[in-house]
């Protein structure tokens, strides 16, 4: 299990093409704004409410998705800036998978700021 500013994550499965991670996000916790060069990023909420924000190219306005348990998996395309924010305590699964015939790249994630918890510096 890996401790994060916003909660914890635990890798359930990883190979050359896919990674599955269980996340526990504390209420008010949020990820960095980031994008993946070649990976899709999927979210499946098991408990709680998770807001996923994404910024299309050439736009300062975000497209927001409010995810709750029972919803289908929500996908963010490679190259799209995005972040998540927990509206309640959240248990979710993140799935990352490579687009097309790209090869794995350890530097696939590009962070534009830092994650944290509301009310902390």
What does this structure look like?
The chain is an all-beta fold. The protein has one domain: Jelly Rolls (Sandwich). Helices cover 0% and strands 57% of the residues. It is built from no helices and 13 strands. The chain has strands at 2-4, 7-14, 18-25, 29-30, 34-36, 39-47, 49-55, 63-68, 74-76, 81-86, 90-98, 109-111, 116-117. A six-stranded antiparallel β-sheet has the order 1-2-3-11-6-9, with no helix packed on it.
Could you give a quick summary of the protein structure above?
This protein is mainly beta and 121 residues long. The protein contains no helices and 13 strands.
* CATH fold-level assignment: Jelly Rolls
Rg (C-alpha, Å): 14 Å
What's the arrangement of strands in the largest beta sheet? 1-2-3-11-6-9
Oligomer: single chain
List keywords for this structure.
Jelly Rolls, 13 strands, 3-stranded antiparallel β-sheet, mainly beta, 6-stranded antiparallel β-sheet, 121 residues
Topology:
Layout: E1 2-4, E2 7-14, E3 18-25, E4 29-30, E5 34-36, E6 39-47, E7 49-55, E8 63-68, E9 74-76, E10 81-86, E11 90-98, E12 109-111, E13 116-117
Antiparallel strand pairs: 1-2, 2-3, 3-11, 4-13, 5-12, 6-9, 6-11, 7-8, 7-10
